[in-house]
Amino acid sequence: MKRWVVLFVIVIFLAGCTNEEEIEKEKREKYDNAINQVVTLENKRLQHEKELSVQDVLLRENLGVAVYSDGHYIELYYNIDSQDWPRTEKTYERYAKNKYRLASEEELKKEKNQKYFEVTSYSERVPIK
Predict the structure, then answer these.
(1) Res 96: pLDDT
(2) What is the pTM of this model?
(3) Which of 1, 65, 72, 102 gives 20 to 30 Å between its CA and that of 27?
(4) Order of strands, edge to edge, in the sheet holding 120-124?
(5) Domain containing 52 — which CATH number?
(6) Helix runs in the chain, H state only
């Protein structure tokens, strides 16, 4: 009887782990295009401001990403070089369906916008603030 209980607990634990992995995969797929768009926009911004050369780009796998309120805001965390401290944080806001723009500091500080940052919908390599 004890074997069955132990086996049951193990099966439930493994099923829970698989389910969490599937949920994370679904979230990644859901926000994949939006995150890629924001990374592209940030690369263009940095190149335009001469912080990166045209051949240099930030790679998604080297960035921290946080998606808030079902994609309303996407925040990027990165260091351009090892001397870049504190790390850079840039926030993009969705202003139309599937379209993002760099959020202004004034807009981010408004109280009405703070509610959007209460729920993290998805994250990748997010540093501790």
Answers:
(1) 92
(2) 0.78
(3) 102
(4) 99-102, 88-96, 73-78, 64-68, 120-124
(5) 3.10.450.560
(6) 2-48, 105-109, 111-114
Domain limits for position 35: 31-124
Q: So what's the pLDDT on residue 128? A: 55
Judge whether 48 lies within some domain.
yes
List of the chain residues with pLDDT < 70 = 1-3, 5-18, 82-86, 111, 127-129
How confident is the model at residue 26, as a pLDDT? 86
92 and 38 in contact (C-beta within 8 Å)? Answer: yes
C-alpha 23/C-alpha 70 separation (Å) is 14
Measure the CA–CA gap between 34 and 23, rounded to whole angstroms. 18
86-89 long-range Cβ contacts below 8 angstroms, 24+ apart: 87/127
